[in-house]
Amino acid sequence: MIRRSKVRELQARALELFDKASIRLAAQERQHIEVADFGLGDPDREGAQIFTFVQTDRYAAKIIALVPGQTLPEHWHPRVGEDPGKQETVRVAWGTLYLVGEGPATPMRAAIPAGKGAVYTLRHEEVLGPSGSRTFSPGEKHWFQAGPEGVVVYSFSSVARDALDGFTDPGVQRVTRIEED
Amino acid sequence: MIRRSKVRELQARALELFDKASIRLAAQERQHIEVADFGLGDPDREGAQIFTFVQTDRYAAKIIALVPGQTLPEHWHPRVGEDPGKQETVRVAWGTLYLVGEGPATPMRAAIPAGKGAVYTLRHEEVLGPSGSRTFSPGEKHWFQAGPEGVVVYSFSSVARDALDGFTDPGVQRVTRIEED
Q1: Cβ B53–A91 below 8 Å, yes or no?
Q2: What is the distance between the alpha carbons of residues A35 and A178, in angstroms, rounded to a whole number?
Q3: Taking the mean position of all CA atoms in its chain, how far away is CA B156?
Q4: Which of B39, B57, B55 is nearest to B47 (CA)?
Q5: DSSP E strand boundaries for A2-131
Q6: Which one of B54, B130, B131 has the shortest CB-CB distance to A156?
Q7: Which residues of A touch B54 (CB under 8 A)?
């Protein structure tokens, strides 16, 4: 649960990051930036701001803004019926992304949120700047953290069904609930 | 057939447009901007510069630069075996796009290339600026022309098989042949 005022604040910070990346949103689109707290209630720490350019039953294209130090929790895209699971390519438009995926442990610039070591299991980091990109196979786990200035990341994928994503943290609820204030 | 020197010139002009749109390409990516002349041999008039962010067997994301007045010929994305045909969303990142699609005739800012009225059959124009977008169903015909400053356009889609696209102009060959000079 997050307050409407916090949603508005994070939408405004996302717009500042989109401006730095020269990503233009139409006036009506600016109202539709999703602020996700993943049900954890502390979106400055674990959360993401997401604008969906397009979503059809065949593909999706989104742009994600993470404010400095913000972490998008460890997750994967499972099989859904006939669909083997979402295949996804991320590409940095602006800023620095700490991308943590499957593989042998590496030195880490990303800081695991305090007390959350058990639900961030991956320790293989790539540091991506503008034009850096990575494609994830269905089922492949990953988590993201913004560098010190924040980051703007494209997500290109097969059909997205965010509400069915798997998360390591059992406390996650993918659908954000907003409290009016 | 186009000369290598013309390919290099149009790649450089595309990079200038990508810079205006703040689209960053890595050094090695800059060599991979496709210059398409559609087999027509006059790419300043009918052509496109295309960089593929990602292409898998499930989706594609590309960025297209058209120089001022350049026209991407009338085409559609046909059924290929089990695939009903490419579904595609274009979104303007920078500049002005004259998008000509199916529908009743409208006033046109786009100028049909001289002598080519028979192979540009559509007369329904939308003028899109930054953040303007449009999704095409499989089989739906369309052609594009850049406004006076050129245009940079994202293309998000289901799997792309450009070499199998249909073109109204029987003179089109989708695969560009380059002559070394």
Answers
A1: yes
A2: 10
A3: 12
A4: B39
A5: 2-3, 34-36, 48-55, 59-66, 71-76, 88-101, 124-128
A6: B54
A7: 89, 91, 133, 135, 156
Q: What is the mean pLDDT of residues A137-156?
A: 97
What is the rounded (10 degree) CA torsion for A101, A103, A109, A113? Answer: 60
The pLDDT, as a whole number, for residue B181 is 87
Q: Within 10 Å of residue B144's Cβ, how many Cβ atoms?
A: 23
CA–CA separation, A167 vs A117, rounded Å?
Answer: 14
Q: With contact defined as beta carbons under 8 Å apart, do A150 and A67 qualify?
A: yes
CB contact under 8 A, B59 and A56: no
Could you tell me if A140 and A102 are in contact, meaning their C-beta atoms sit under 8 angstroms apart?
A: yes
Answer yes or no: do B154 and A29 touch at CB < 8 A: no
Predicted TM-score of the model (pTM): 0.96
Tell me A29's DSSP state. Answer: G
Query: Rounded CA gap, A161 and A176, in Å?
Result: 15
Per-residue pLDDT 10s for chain B (181 aa) are 899 999 999 999 999 999 999 999 999 999 999 999 999 999 999 999 999 999 999 999 999 999 999 999 999 999 999 899 999 999 999 999 999 999 999 999 999 999 999 999 999 999 999 999 999 999 999 999 999 999 999 999 999 999 999 999 999 998 899 999 8
What H or E segment, with its residue span, contains residue B145? Answer: strand B142-158
Q: Could you give the C-alpha distances from B75 to A69, B1, B139, in angstroms and in order? A: 45, 20, 9
pLDDT digits (tens, 9 = 90+) for A51-102: 999 999 999 999 999 999 999 999 999 999 989 999 999 999 999 999 999 9
CB contact under 8 A, A61 and B25: no
Number of CB pairs < 8 Å for A and B? Answer: 75
Q: Do A54 and B24 touch (CB under 8 A)?
A: no
Residue from A54, A83, A86, A157 to probe the interface with B (highest B Cβ count within 10 Å): A54
CB contact under 8 A, B21 and A22: yes
